[in-house]
Automatic annotation (TrEMBL):
InterPro entries: CheY-like_superfamily, NreC/VraR/RcsB-like_REC, Sig_transdc_resp-reg_receiver, Tscrpt_reg_LuxR_C, WalR-like, WH-like_DNA-bd_sf
Protein name: Response regulator transcription factor
Source organism: Streptomyces iconiensis
A UniProt-annotated Pfam family: GerE
Signal peptide: none
Annotated transmembrane regions: none
Domain of life where this protein originates: Bacteria
Residues with the 4-aspartylphosphate modification: D52
HTH luxR-type domain boundaries: 144-215
Keywords linked to the UniProt accession: DNA-binding, Phosphoprotein, Transcription, Transcription regulation
Keyword DNA-binding set for record: yes
Response regulatory domain residues: 2-122
């Protein structure tokens, strides 16, 4: 797996590079600015880019903007975004363009090495990985007059794990239930969120976007 790292903090940048190389991953370039990152992507055509949300010069959304540009030039590029805080608008913007090969993690997750590596591999393999804390905070910000209020506590648990990017088998293992039970809960979630089988979008992604959008508008 070929990786480019875009992070303006030199200690974190080099720490990530050392960690990934220790796991036999090929870190082909590191960058401290958005322009350096885009140049590295164009030069090395990596499989995955790890990108900080806030980068120079304004330290607002330069990382997200650069990641979007990189994916436009290389649609197959997997992107794992790192942020120090839960910034729901950025999470929503990322997923709005499609969830394949995208991740959004808090930087503190990097210290939990196994979880971080699992998320990185999941994104590289074409999946989605959203930090559990992001999911929890977005749920907490959602007011009770939304369609999410129709969900049972267990269905909310399942939707939260779906938002993290887990498949049915992993959800069943996490909740210690059968895959059949998970499938039933997901079917109920689709029904209660008015997502029909005839929808042309991926209903799993649509369900996650539904609560992200509700939370974003009501925060």
């Amino acid at each position: 797996m070929r990786v480019v790292i875009a992070e303006d903090d030199p200690l974190l940048r080099e720490g990530l590079a050392l960690l990934l190389r220790a796991e036999s991953l090929d870190v082909v370039a590191t960058a401290g600015t958005p322009d350096e990152f885009l140049e590295a992507v164009a030069t090395h055509a990596p499989d995955v880019a790890i990108v900080d949300v806030r980068m120079p010069p304004t330290h607002t959304d330069e990382g997200i903007v650069a990641a979007v540009k990189a994916r436009r030039s290389q649609p197959d590029l997997a992107v794992l975004v790192l942020s120090a805080y839960v910034e729901q608008a950025f999470a929503t913007d990322l997923l709005a363009g499609g969830s394949a090969r995208l991740g959004y993690l808090l930087k503190e997750r990097v210290g939990r090495v196994q979880e971080f590596l699992e998320a990185l591999h999941r994104v590289a393999d074409g999946g989605t990985a959203i930090d559990p804390e992001v999911v929890a905070q977005l749920f907490a910000r959602t007011l009770p007059d939304t369609r999410l209020n129709r969900l049972s506590p267990r269905e909310r648990d399942v939707l939260g794990l779906m938002a993290e990017g887990l498949g049915n088998t992993a959800i069943a293992e996490r909740l210690v239930v059968t895959e059949g039970a998970v499938h039933k809960h997901i079917r109920n979630i689709f029904t209660k969120l008015d997502l029909t089988p005839t929808d042309r979008t991926d209903r799993r992604v649509a369900a996650v976007l539904r609560y992200l959008d509700e939370a974003d508008r009501r925060a």
